[in-house]
Structure to design on (302 residues):
């Protein structure tokens, strides 16, 4: 009978508890940040702390050893995260906030028109409802980005990575990000969801995004049937069409389950990921590639 060492037992325990522990820590920090006098500052501090912890754990207990090797894309990944994904999310939050303040001011002193949103429900219920609704938009945007060439030219940037790790979580083209935001947040705005719902959904998406792309040896078991986990997202990055065209959910797998795109076979996901086409080198070239004929030809070249 083979006895596991104390280190092996500890790694096994950590592999089971780290996903909910890291997500819970991020959301707890979000709650404290939103209750502070400087919510954006403290949320970014919490986000950076969780990202650094994940980065450290990737070195200590990696899922794929080969993904620890440099691909010379770290600077570009950070640029896309900060200048594309990050600024787009902040801009959307500011626009939404101003729109809601303006609407509230315009309606002050007037009879309430009546909103279909359950404003009296506990915030946790409102956020859960908002997640399900927003997730349908995220699912639709993501699936269309894989099925329509005109959208894939922007989404291909994200799938061009040859390894998954915390730094390429935000590697998205700005057009891709704007499309997702439009399809996911517009229904919530129309239904009258309050600003805290938008903020909490953005926080959940941010921390689950860090975790789905992490290179940590994690075991998520039953969670794979509710959330988008690293195990599921690694299949989504497969170069095999039958494997990669699946698991489109950003946070939840509800719509994948209902619409037949859930994929989680009992074998190890491939370590060889990427796209068949070619992505330009350098942040600005990658940003401009979908807008040039030569760039698009390179993206679709086998």
């Amino acid at each position: 009978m083979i006895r596991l060492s104390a280190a092996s037992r500890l790694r096994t325990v950590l592999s089971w508890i780290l996903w909910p522990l890291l997500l819970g820590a991020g959301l707890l920090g979000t709650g404290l940040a939103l209750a502070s006098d400087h919510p954006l500052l403290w949320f970014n501090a919490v986000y950076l702390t969780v990202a650094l912890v994940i980065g450290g754990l990737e070195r200590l207990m990696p899922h794929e050893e080969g993904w620890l090797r440099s691909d010379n894309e770290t600077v570009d990944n950070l640029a896309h995260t900060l200048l594309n994904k990050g600024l787009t999310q902040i801009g959307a939050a500011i626009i939404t906030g101003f729109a809601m303040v303006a609407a509230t001011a315009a309606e002050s002193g007037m009879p309430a028109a009546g909103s279909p949103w359950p404003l009296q429900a506990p915030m946790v219920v409102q956020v859960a409802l908002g997640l399900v609704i927003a997730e349908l938009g995220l699912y639709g945007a993501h699936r269309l980005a894989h099925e329509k060439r005109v959208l894939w030219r922007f989404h291909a940037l994200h799938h061009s990575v040859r390894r998954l790790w915390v730094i390429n979580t935000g590697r998205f083209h700005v057009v891709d990000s704007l499309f997702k935001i439009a399809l996911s947040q517009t229904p919530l705005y129309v239904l009258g969801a309050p600003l805290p719902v938008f903020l909490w959904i953005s926080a959940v998406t941010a921390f689950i995004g860090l975790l789905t792309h992490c290179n940590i040896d994690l075991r998520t078991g039953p969670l794979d049937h509710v959330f988008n986990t690293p195990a599921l997202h690694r299949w989504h990055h497969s170069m095999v069409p039958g494997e990669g065209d699946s698991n489109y959910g950003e946070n939840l797998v509800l719509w994948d389950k209902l619409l037949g795109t859930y994929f989680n076979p009992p074998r190890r996901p491939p370590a060889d990921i990427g796209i068949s086409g070619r992505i330009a080198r350098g942040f600005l070239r990658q940003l401009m590639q979908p807008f040039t004929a030569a760039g698009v030809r390179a993206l679709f070249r086998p």
Notes: The first helix runs from residue 6 to 34. DSSP finds twelve helices and no strands in the chain. The radius of gyration is 20 Å.
